Automatic annotation (TrEMBL):
This is 6-phospho-beta-glucosidase. InterPro entries: GH, GH_1_N_CS, Glyco_hydro_1, Glyco_hydro_1_AS. It is an enzyme of class 3 (hydrolase). Its EC number is 3.2.1.86. GO terms for molecular function: 6-phospho-beta-glucosidase activity. The keyword Hydrolase applies.
Length: 481
């Protein structure tokens, strides 16, 4: 009656994921404008800037701004894509830098040189039959939009984003079938400048500002879904969630309720993008916290009509929570979201909990909540690598991490979860979003570039390069043996 699922789906989109500001460099080339991330220095100030507590609009001489050169993908994309092809990539997730297309965000006409750059990259990918998966906005806004408009606080951003997205759909309609609107939309609640170009003013009600900005992004995202369907009828467009299931530290019902609240905070915006309306728990939360959102009846109709086709998400860690103040003292905030240390799990060198089983749980949870295809668009281990004298890198720790996670993805597929692809984060070493470091490496390809900005930018294959190549060649068959 029922057939056992015994392989990754045919055509599974194995690949890797990146973001413009973390790889491209060439930060002012060919008419590109400055982005918000171009003004985020590496080092101690970075987090305060990311949280919207510190204005960084005036670059300071002594600071290092890692996005300015990044790994120079802008000039080396052909070499990098050839390496992805050698690994057998079926897909490559990348984002478009808004300020290459509209340098100030509100320009009347787009910058042709910027549009042409992405044409060139897509052509190169398609030459190797690599499917481009495109994020319209991965954290970087034209800085003018943050300075002049206050970022996503301002409703005017909706139509600017709509114009930007339509420009992309029209231009790339024959080349790109998989789109996503905002990278990790829920991140704006935690890193308001990174996620929405927000800098708080003295005395502002932060929650009011954040959820209003989120509402603007939601409406903009829905309008992009509408435009995408109208302009590219065979395309699929998704939302993107920073995911990760939460465990209760104990069997205390209050701990379990704390879990639900934490998970709901993550899912709230995706609930709207996927189901088309604010859930009841969100309405209650707004009322009880004095959050009074400006929402028009047109907004509600747009949200309801233009829901996403699939769910993209990142998964690095699970979390754990408790209501016990003693337990809460044992906390790691390595990952942006923070978590009570889970006694059953290890953490990475950067304090991120490592939990392969959590990925299976997360896949099942999202599947049951939305019943739409899923795409795991980020996952991986940020670790320090050592380049040995013979130009090799023995990154067995990365292979182990991925191996354990792939086994759990296979379990989720056997559970009946519809997963269309997997793109590991940073298939080539890139700038860390959180810390601005190069030392925190995710890649299968090593890039000779260091925290202080030195290095030749030479690309070197790691041991994991060959391992991932084999996995893709066999479509992950070992996980079904
Ligand atoms: C995700 C982001 O949150 O995590 C990426 O979408 C980011 O941009 C990735 O790079 C890993 O985080 P980090 O801080 O290690 O770069």
């Amino acid at each position: 009656m029922f057939n056992k699922i015994n392989s990754f789906p045919e055509g599974f989109l194995w690949g890797g994921a990146t973001a413009a500001n973390q790889i491209e460099g060439a930060y002012l080339a060919d008419g590109k404008g400055l982005t918000t991330i171009d003004l985020m220095p590496k080092g101690s100030k970075r987090n305060e800037v990311a949280m919207g507590n510190l204005n960084s609009f005036e670059p300071e001489g002594e600071e290092v701004y890692p996005s300015h050169e990044a790994i120079d993908f802008y000039h080396r994309y052909k070499e990098d894509i050839a390496l992805f092809s050698e690994m057998g990539f079926k897909s490559f997730r990348m984002s478009i830098s808004w300020s290459r297309i509209f340098p100030n965000g509100d320009d009347l006409t787009p910058n042709e040189a910027g549009l042409q750059f992405y044409d060139n990259v897509f052509d190169e990918l398609l030459k190797y039959n690599i499917e481009p998966i495109v994020t319209i906005c991965h954290f970087d806004l034209p800085v003018n939009l943050a300075k002049t408009y206050g970022g996503w606080k301002n409703r005017a951003m909706i139509s600017l984003f709509e114009k930007y997205s339509k420009t992309l759909f029209e231009r790339y309609k024959t080349k790109v079938k998989y789109w996503m609107t905002f990278n990790e939309i829920n991140m704006l609640l935690h890193l308001p400048y990174t996620g929405a170009g927000i800098i708080f003013e003295e005395g502002e009600n932060k929650q009011q500002v954040l959820y209003q900005a989120a509402h603007h992004e939601l409406v903009a995202s829905a309008l992009a879904v509408k435009a995408c369907h109208e302009i590219i009828p065979n395309a699929m467009i998704c939302c993107m969630l920073a995911a990760g299931n939460v465990y209760p530290y104990s069997s205390n019902p209050e701990d379990y309720w704390a879990v639900m609240e934490m998970e709901r905070e993550s899912y709230l915006l995706i609930d709207v993008q996927s189901k088309g309306e604010y859930p009841g728990y969100a309405k209650r939360f707004f009322i009880e916290n004095g959050i009074d959102l400006q929402i028009t009846s047109d907004d509600l109709e747009i949200l309801q009509k233009y829901t996403v086709d699939y769910i993209g998400f990142s998964y690095y860690s699970s979390r754990c929570t408790s209501v016990d103040p003693e337990v809460l003292k044992n906390y790691t905030d390595g990952n942006v979201f923070g978590s009570v240390l889970n006694p059953y799990l290890e953490t990475s060198d950067w304090g991120w909990t490592i939990d392969p089983k959590g990925l299976r749980i997360t896949c099942n949870q999202i599947h049951e909540r939305y019943n739409k295809p899923l795409f795991i668009v980020e996952n991986g281990l940020g670790a320090q690598d050592t380049l040995l004298k013979d130009d090799t890198i023995e990154d067995d720790y990365r292979i182990k991490y991925l191996d354990l996670h792939f086994a759990e993805i296979a379990e989720a597929i056997k559970d009946g979860v519809d997963i269309i692809g997997y793109t590991s984060w940073g298939p080539i070493d890139l700038v860390s979003n959180g810390t601005g470091e190069m030392k925190k490496r995710y890649g299968f390809i090593y890039v000779d570039k260091h925290n202080d900005g030195t290095g030749t930018l030479r690309r070197i294959k790691k041991k994991s390069f060959f391992w991932y190549k084999d996995i893709i060649a066999e479509n992950g068959s070992k996980y079904f043996e």
